[in-house]
Structures are given as C-alpha cells and as structure tokens.
Write a structure and sequence with these properties.
The N and C termini lie far apart (64 Å). 37% of the residues lie in helices and 25% in strands. By secondary structure, it is α+β, with helices and mostly antiparallel strands. It has a five-stranded antiparallel beta sheet with strand order 3-4-7-5-6.
Length: 155
C-alpha cells in the first residue's frame, strides 16, 4: 500500500468528512456544512460538494483578536461587505438622554436596532427617539465596522 507520513496526509477524520460530503452531494442534500481542519481541507471539501466548510479554530481566533482589539465591544456579527451588528455598552455620559439627542445616525452613521438592559437581561427592539438611555443599557447597533470602531473610541 501507498502510505504518506502523517504530516503529509489528511487525518482519517478529515478524509471521512470528504467522503461524507461527497455522498451527501450524491444523495442531493439541500445544504452541506462541514468542519474543516485547515484552509486546504476546506477547499477540498468545497470541491467535492460541501456548500460551506467551517474552521472553528480560525473563527474563534478571529473573534478573540477582534475582542482584544475592541475592548468596549461585547459581541459582533459580521454582515456583507464591511457592515456588522455589534453590542456596545452605552457610555455613561449617555445616561438619562433620549436617543434622538445623541444623534447617533447623523454623527456616527450607526443605527441602534435594540437596547438591552444588562441588569434585567431584557431587550427593547427598534427603540424610538424618545427612548431614555439608562446606565445599565447596552446598544445593539448596525453600521460599518469603521464607524462602530470610531463610536467605541469616542462614544
């Protein structure tokens, strides 16, 4: 038999995912999402029929580096292009002010799509301009990544 050293081969589990993706595609599965161990493994899985190959370690490293680079950012979800949804603690100086007074849309080009009361764990979705910010609030905002980063810095 022809055997390559382990460093030059795909692991048994990685090989199994290739076969599973191939067979699922042959069975006409609507969507195939598989775990890959590397970028090269992901490319192979996509070539044999996977719709998406996920590398959890890479995704976690990206989230960790993003949270280290943006300490005020609680969580984020990247969207298409450079847009994202992010959770950001409301700066203390916003307390007792109405959202419309903060002019977040016109001055920071971000949109508050929800407000989370961190003490109660409740959300108010699509708050209006009359909403009064509390010290325990966390904003769920939509905007370009650069605008959200700038808002974090200047708040």
């Amino acid at each position: 038999p022809w055997v390559l050293p382990q460093s030059q081969t795909m692991s048994f589990v990685g090989y199994a995912w290739v076969l599973i993706a191939l067979h699922l595609r042959e069975l006409k599965a609507k969507r195939i999402v598989v775990k890959a161990s590397s970028g090269e493994h992901a490319r192979i899985l996509e070539k044999v029929g996977a719709d998406e190959a996920i590398i959890p370690e890479k995704q976690m490293a990206s989230r960790l580096s993003h949270s280290l680079a943006h300490p005020n950012l609680i969580d984020h979800i990247p969207l298409t292009g450079d847009y994202m949804v992010a959770e950001v603690s409301a700066p203390d100086r916003f307390a007792n002010k109405k959202l419309k007074e903060l002019r977040l849309r016109s001055e920071h080009e971000i949109q508050v799509i929800a407000v989370k009361d961190s003490r109660r764990g409740t959300y108010q979705f699509a708050p209006g301009g009359e909403y009064t910010v509390r010290t325990s609030d966390t904003f769920v905002i939509l905007g370009r990544e650069a605008n959200i980063a700038k808002f974090e810095e200047t708040g």
